[in-house]
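Anyone opening a protein record will find just a pair of labelled lines. The record below illustrates this layout.
***
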Amino acid sequence: MQKPTIGVQMMMLKDKIAQDGIRETFRRVREIGFSTVELSQIEMTPENVEQIKSSLEEFDMRVCATSAALKPMAPGIKMETLRDDFDKIVADTKALGCKYIRIGMISFDCLGSKERIIEYTKELNEMGRRLKEEGLSLYYHNHHMEFAKYDGKYLMDIMAEESDPECLGFELDVHWLQRAGVNPLEWIKKLEGRTKIIHIKDYRIAQTFDMSGGLEGIMRAMSDVVEFAEIGEGNLDIKSIIDLAGETGVEHIFIEQDNTYGRDPYDSLEISANNLRSLGFEDRFNHNNILCSINA
C-alpha cells in the first residue's frame, strides 16, 4: 500500500502570511511537524516565489501542488488564469519543483447550464493536455456544488465523463463530499487512478446555534449548523479515508480548514497533527520518509 504524504494547504494560513511573512509561516508549519504544502491564495509575485523557494530550502520542505484558475471566477474579477498567464504559471510551478497544478473551484458563470459545464470541462481538458506537454498535471478540486444534478447526472460525473483521464484529474475534498450528501469513500474508489491529491478537513455539527430572530432566524441557523473541524474533532472516518487513499494511489493529502471559528490556525493545525499522530500517521508528515511527487 502506498503511503501518501500528509501536509498543509496554505490557504488556511493566508492571514498569517500577510501578518508574519512567508518564511515565518513556513517555519511554524515545519515546527508543527509538516514538510509538504499546497499553495493557494498566495500572490505569486517574483518576490514571493523566491521567498517560498528559500523557505523550502531552509526548512527542508516541498511544494507538491500549486493553484490556478482556468479563467476569472466571475466577470470583472482580476486574477492570474491559465487562459491568459499560462507561461508564467508553468514557470512558477516548475521553479518550485512541483508537477501538480490544481483548479480550486469552477467558474461561477458555468453553473446552471449543462452546456456551459461541458464547454468548461473541455477547455480544462485541453489545458491539461498543454500542461502534460510541459511535464505537469492538472487537477480539479470539488466543493458541494458539483453534486447538483443536470438531467439526472451529478455535475461531477459530467466533468469526469467529458474529460480524458490522461489530461484531467480530480482533487477530492472529503468534507465537501460529505456536505454534498455523498460518501467520500465511494468517490475515492470511483475516481481511483484520477485522484493523486485529496483534501482532508473534518465535518462537525455545531453544539449550539443562535436562536435569535424568531422562528425564521432559528430555521436559518439550523441550515448553518454544519462546521469545518480539525481532523479527529468531527464525524468523518479519517483513518478509513487515509487508508483508502493509500490503496487507490493517492500521493498527497493536505489538511485544509476553511474556518477555525476564532481559534488560531496554528492551534487548529496542532490539534489535527496530534489527532493524526494518535491514529498512527505521523510518519506521513515528513517527505523524507516518503517520496515526494516530483520524484515519483
